[in-house]
């Protein structure tokens, strides 16, 4: 899995083989033919009980993920708007706090709603501040980046649901290698700018910067597709409902990355006019 938020949780892992005897969370073991095995008392209890939904059984559902994701983005928007209006210069604080909380949440085996909400708030401070700074220099750039992010999210979801792009092991390996290479490049470029060797966007200026920006946007879009596939596996395998927080957090990480890449790409394009 390319997104460490989801790849570090077994509930979003690879699908089990057909012959596997291990059942989804909370389900009985199966016989060699894949049929569930129940005791006589369990069967009698089942026949005498009303049908249970996934919510009744405490399983992960798509609705859970949607609600949690919407809630996190509501927190992000509120803190982002406050930072934009009051103190845009706090964006660097939000970036550092968001990075630390992101790493903590990414490697937790069990999700912590409080820490995930805190991450959303920190990212709101970061995005609100950096967006205000970009908007002051390039008017209208924020709404362009937002529309581009929303459009890319919708297009990625449609492509995934249509089956036109399949998440295969080869696809995942390629994405991991590409993301690792981009991370190394970004760290080197950040270091060159921080130490004054280069200014502006560093190595991301001009035509080369545009190509790198398009490449980064493509990586983020493909990462979204992998996230969708991981969430689908979690639902199909009967993951506990609490992991809706993990899924929502993973989507937020990718969407924040995608928005920042669009913001930077648009700034490069408008700066070259």
UniProtKB/TrEMBL annotation:
Keywords attached to this entry: Membrane, Transmembrane, Transmembrane helix
Transmembrane portions of the chain: 65-84, 90-107, 114-134, 140-160, 172-198, 210-231, 243-260
Bias (Polar residues) ranges: 27-39
InterPro entries, A to Z: BaxI_1-like
Species of provenance: Actinotalea ferrariae CF5-4
Record-given protein name: Membrane protein
Top-level taxonomy: Bacteria, Bacillati, Actinomycetota, Actinomycetes, Micrococcales
The organism's place on the tree of life at top rank: Bacteria
Protein's UniProt keywords contain Transmembrane helix: yes
Spans annotated as Disordered: 17-39
Pfam family, one: BaxI_1
